[in-house]
Amino acid sequence: MSAMLSGLPLVSIVTFLPLAGAVLLVFFRRGSARAVRATALGVSLLTFVLSLLLFFAYDGASGLPELVERSSWLRGGIDYHVGVDGISLFLVLLAALMTPLALLSSWRAVDDRIKEFSFFMLLLETGMIGVFVSLNLFLFYVFWEAMLIPMYFLIGIWGGRRRIYATTKFVLFTMFGSLLMLVAIFVLQAAYSRAMGSPSLTIADLAAVPLSPALQSWLFLAFGLAFAIKIPLFPLHTWLPDAHVEAPTAGSVLLAAVLLKMGAYGFLRLGLPLFPAAAASFAPALSILAVVGIIYGGLMALVQKDMKSLVAYSSVSHMGLIMLAVFSLNFEATEGAIYQMLNHGLSTGALFLCVGILYERTHTRLIADYGGAAARMPVFAGLFLVAMLSSAGLPGLNGFVGEFLCFFGIFAANKTLAVLSVSTVVLSAAYLLWLYRRVMHGPLKDPADRRLRDLDGRELACLVPLVVLMLFMGLFPGTFLRKMDSSVARYVESLRSKAPVVTALELPGRPGAEATALAEPER
Amino acid sequence: MGFPPPIPPSVLALAPLLALVAGALLVLLLEAFLKRKDGELPAFVAVFALLASAFFTVVSWNVGNSGVYLHGRLLVDNLALLVTGVLVLAGIAVILMSLKYAAHQDMNLGQLCGLLLLAVAGAMIMVSSSDGLVVFLGLEVLSVASYAMSGLKRQDRASSEAAAKYFLMGSFAGAFFVFGLALVFGTSGSLDLTAGLSAGASLSAFPAAGAVGLGLILTALFFKIAVAPFHMWAPDVYEGAPTPVTVFLTIVPKAAGLAVLLRVLLPLLSGETAAAAVFTPALSVAAVLTMFAGNLAALRQKSVKRMLAYSSIAHAGYLLVAIVAGDAPSLVFYLLVYLFMNGGAFAVLVAMSGRGFERASLGDFAGLGRRHPGLAASLSIFLLSLAGFPPTAGFLAKFYVFGAAVREGHILLAVAAVLASLIAVAYYLKIIVVMYMQDAEAAAAFDRDDPALFLVIFLGLLGVLQLGLWPGNALSLIRAAFNAF
Q: Mutation test of the interface with chain B: which of A183, A194, A215, A223, choosing the one with the most B Cβ atoms within 10 A?
């Protein structure tokens, strides 16, 4: 397989095919809505198919980036340097999978300025994939920032009533973090040239720069702030509910499924490997914030009246768990975090699609306006249920595998936090099942209301792949984990070798915590 | 050497300037003797003169014609040649933008072209000398022509007000320059801005009178560049002046002033000199003040033209960061990028105007994304570049300037600069919000038959994207230029 593909710059093709599609769309006539939609969907599907080739071509034995393409771009260590490894591979696949589904989901929901809409969606896809495949810090930053522009337009043009407020807040929050990261990049670049004599912005090279502890802490904080805002880590999450609630369904899906992962990915790819000692010393504080986020997000989700903001707060809670796992700095937790990123992408993406499907029928997202929908929409009820249970971590579905790995690793790092973090299981079960009961069960709100049709073919095509994948990832996690193993092992190994303090991370845990924490993840 | 035919170096050194001055005289003569006042002949002559000037600049560059001519009065070096290139490009853009605009706004195109050529010539003199008096001469030629250009819309009170304001404040600044020069001459015995001051700076203590003199000269230059706190005149003048003239005012005097600043300060501030101890903090403070004053004021504007006026003040602040860092390549690259993005944004404003009126308020842009998608998309790209989003050139320009600041140890300055850029994002996005996310109450039709203007917009886009994605050639040219600097 890989021999056949060896001549092709596959990673670049997957990254820039959507951009090429977007440019193509510019030349379409205004008003040719069907052609525009079909082209955009076709391009994104093709991208997905090609990204599957990445999966097969990626060997994963060494754990190093594979399918690497590198050519010099500008002086000062700025190269065009892309490739995938076990950490980024599946996030690329996730982005490539969610974009066509998001496009499909907005087939009817978006009918204004379809050309622009499809254009920005494809642009966003290139940005998202680009962030994950970049092996050069400059390139990473370019994609990271460039991606804001299409998202800005998607929320701002096709969003809800308070869309302009939400989209401006989104951009300013994200930019605040990333501009400070830019300064940190300069400092790192200068430190590298000073230490090594020649400039480089290759991420793998930068990890070798000797930095004083104080400088390392500052740089970690600057990078960490950018990532923490994106994740979003409590208390930097306030942009998220606004952005989610106001974004169109397609925007919410991509925001939740892919964009939030970039923060966690940033920590895995940059924040921790580049500044291991600082990361280790800040890990306890960040872990506590992550736990606060888990509980706070869960509690907020319980009291939401709007389905979309419920799912948005559930994201805050779930991303908190992922962050806690990332900061546990061991193999199981890291692999669990990556797996959970994929799960969260699928399940939250599916939940936003479900909310979108309901909204398209009734034009309300308030939970109180619904009731007994399962009677009219049995197929939908089934798929919604699976998505929900996946999000809640039911054994047999993907969420369970990820959460189990996370808890396993977190427990090894810190028992107190592990116990506290397990509350996510209880909380997510509570808010999701309660949501399901209020929306799908009970008496029909308005028996005369004929609007609640069951799913049509297009909507099935959106949801079924996700549900199938949830089952598959729950039953055969090995398919995915095998490809991650050596990269994650390498990553953890390099962290430990650089920061011996990592192994001695544990906070003083309560003596009784052990038994509870062991019992909890099993449920 | 077959082509170009050998020209004596001193003639070649003067040629770009002579081309402009000859062009200016020709245009003014045409003005006096031509029957039809609305013809575009002066514009053609002016563009031709600018192209000739560009040609001689390129020839000078290619034959490596750098040196000191006319008994030390004229200094041709790579900095001078590069900045001359920027000035000439700006001049051509301004003329192409004005062809239709001048007719619509009842402006005399011939006068505009003549004055513009003189102003560019003045700016060129400024950057091609290190002799204080010659720089002053250039500054005054540039200024006097600029005052007149600001007031070219004679029926318009704002335009006249702009000219009067600019004139009064500008003459004041000119006096500062001369006074400063006198003090520098008194302490060093030389009118040469670089050598004379450097001699003083190498002493353990910078002579106080010399420092005051330099301070006064900087003040005058700050005024021209519109650096806070000497920027108060700028918004009114930029807003009141005819839009193509605003393009000129926001680019040419800034570029020339910054080049002089660079020439004067670079030898002074490199290393641990006594002058550096005084002027580096002062310049840093001025840079921060300028960025924040420009950006914060721009946030509150209701007129896009005034907003862009304040934005150009903020950009002067970013450019000053490059001076503080002492990094000539990033300064010149930023100037080049700024020429494209700022010129492009104002060109869209010109395209919005019609016979006898301008559309510059935010409300006029409502729904532009629907009615004129090409124009709105162009303006969006220029604004995103001004805001510093990748992959536009604006990002790369900031990347190099702020990167240079960090490399030289000015981390806090870089942090201030990125925070200022964040404020700027808010107002640039405001224009995009209005264009794409609000609908117009009444769709106003406007004249789109202006190929020269659309050429300018197109070239601006090309520049912004090319310099953002594949700036390799431009960068290596600029870097090569300063390796020997």
A: A183
